[in-house]
Amino acid sequence: MSVRSEQPVAGPAVPALRTILVAAWAVFVKDLRTELRTRYALNAMVLFAACTAVMVSIGTTFIGLRRSEEALLIQASLLWVALLFAAITGLSRGFVHEEETRTLAALRLAAPPAAVYLGKFLLNLALLAVLGLITSVLFIILVRVQVGSPLAFLLMIAAGSLCLAAATTILAAIIARASFKSALFAVLAFPLLVPPLIIAIQGTAVSLDNAGLDPVRGALQFLVAYSVATFVTSLMLFRFVWEA
Amino acid sequence: MAERLGQIGKLLIGIWIAGIAIAMFLVIPQYEGLGNAGRIVIMHVPTAWVSVLAFAVSAVFSALYLWRGRPVYDHYALAAAESGFLFTALATVTGMIFSQVVWGIYWNWDPRQTSIFVLLLIYAALFALRSAIDQPARRRQLSAVYSLFAFVTVPFLIFVAPRIADSTLHPNCAFIQGSACDGVTLEVGKIGLLGDRKVQLLGLERQGDIITAAVKVSEPGLSSETILRPSYDLAAGDMVARPEFPGLRYQLGLEAVDLTANSALLNIEAPGTGLLENQRTLVTFLAAIIGFTALFVWLLTLRATLLDVQWALAQREGSRL
Question: Chain A closest CA to B295's CA: distance in Å?
Fold first, then answer.
C-alpha cells in the first residue's frame, strides 16, 4: 500500500510570500476571535499561573527569603515552573480545538500549511505575552520578587516565551492527531524545552539583580537562536504534519 | 550467501563482545586509586557513544521516510530508536554506578547527565507518541517529524553545558591529567569551586623550597568541612603532597604558586596515571567502541527486518479480510 501518490501535492506550486502572510494573519485573527469569545485557553493558563503564584506565596513569604544568589535562582525557577506548566495547559488549544470541532478540513482548504502554522504561532505568542505579563506581576506582588533590572527581566521573559511558542506550536499540531492529547503534549514538549529553560531560569535570576542588560546578553542570544532554529524547522516540517 | 555472511557476522560480534568482557577484567591494569570500579568505563563510554549514534541514525531514517514515504525507512528509524533507548539506559546505569563508587553520588546534574537524561526523555516521548496514534501511516509521519524536530533541539544542550559546567564530575576535568580542566587560581582568603567542592585558600607556608597551602574544602551543601594541605616544590617545579578529597578518590593538587601575588593554582586531579595512556587500556577501549557499534548495527537490522515482516504479515491479513 503506497501511502502517498507520486504526483506533487495539488494546488499552486509555491504561494507568494504575501499571500501566505495575509492568510496567516487571517488565521490568527480568526483564532484570536474564537479565543476571545470563549477565553478557554487564556482562562486555563492564567488561573493555573495564579494558583501557582498563590501557592508559592503561601509557602515562601513566611520564611522571608533573604536576598541571596540562591534566593534569586529559586524565585526565577518558580516563576518559570509556573510559566511552563501554565503554557502547557493552554498552548495546544489552537490545533486541538480545530480537531475537536472538525474544522481542520475547512482550514486545509482555506489556507496553505505555512500560513496555518504562522497563524497558530502568532496566537500562541499572543497568549504567552498575556500569560507572561500576568504571571510576572503576580510573582512581583505575591512572592515579593524584586526586579533589579526591569528591561533585562522583560526581555528574558519575552525571549523565553518566544522559545516556548516556537518549540511547542508544531507539537500541538502533532498531538492534535493523537489520543491522550493533553498528557502527550507535556511529554513531547518537556525534553525539547530543557535547554532553553535552563538558560531562561539562569538569565532571569541574573536579571533580578540590578546589573543591567550586559550579563543577560548571552542568555538572550541563546534563546533567540533556539527560537529561530525551532521556528525554521517547524516551518519546514509542518507540511508533513498537516498532510498526515 | 548473504545469509551465511550474516550468520558469521553475528557470531563474530558475540565473540568480540565476549573478548572485551574478558579483557575488561584480565587485560587492563587496575587504575591506581579507582580500583575495580574504573573497569566499568570500558562499557560506559561505548554505550553512551552508541546512544547518541542511534539518535542520529533514527533522525536520518526519519528524514528519508518523510522524503520517500517508504515504510521500510520508518522501520529502521523505529529500530534505531528502540536499540538506542536500550543503550542509553545502559550508559545511564553504568555511569550512575561508577559515579556512586568513585564520587559518592549517584546523580548531580552535570552537563553529560543532563544531556543523557534529555535523550532518555526524547526516546520515551517518541514511544509515547507512537503508541498514541492508531493509524500506521499517520503514526509514521508524525513520529518522523518529532524525531527530526527533537534532533534539531539537542545540539543546543552543547551551549547549555558551559553554564552548568561548574558542577561537572566528568573526565574532561578529572580523569585525563592535564587536559581541559584549568583549575582555579585563588588569592589567600578567596573562595573557588573545584568539581562540586567549594575550596578556600587559607594560607601559604614556605619551608625551604616547599610551599604548603592550607585549603578549606567544603562538601556540597556545606555538610562538612576539612582542611587539606597540598604542597609544591619550587625548585623542581612540581607538586609534592596531593591529599585526597574526603570521601572521594580524587586529589587536590597545588599546581603553581605565585608568591608575589600571594596566590596559588589549585586543581582536582585523577589519582595515578592518565587513563588512556596505557596501551592495553586504549586498545581494549577502542575494541569496545567497535564492538558496541557493531552490536548496535546488528540490533538495528534485526529489529528492522522483524518490523518489515510484521508489516508484510499485517498487510496480507488485511488484504484477505
Answer: 27
Determine contact: A213 vs chain B, CB below 8 A: no
The boundaries of the domain holding residue A103 are: 17-243
Whether residue A8 lies inside any domain: the answer is no
How far, in Å, CA of A155 to CA of A227, rounded? 14
Closest residue of A to B119, CA-based? A191
**CB-based contact B152:A233 (threshold 8 Å):** yes
- Nearest CB partner across the interface for A1, out of B122, B141, B315: B315
pLDDT tens track for B19-59: 998 888 887 776 655 667 778 888 888 998 999 899 999 99
The total domain count for chain A is: 1
Q: How far is residue B64's CA from residue B75's CA, in Å, rounded to a whole number? A: 11
Chain B residues closer than 8 Å to A160 by CB:
none
Contact B164 A198 (CB under 8 A): yes
Cell numbers describing residue B5 = 555472511
DSSP β-ladder status, B210-218 and B197-207: antiparallel
Count of A–B CB contacts within 8 Å? 103
Question: What ipTM did this prediction achieve?
Answer: 0.87
Is there a domain that residue A208 lies in? Answer: yes
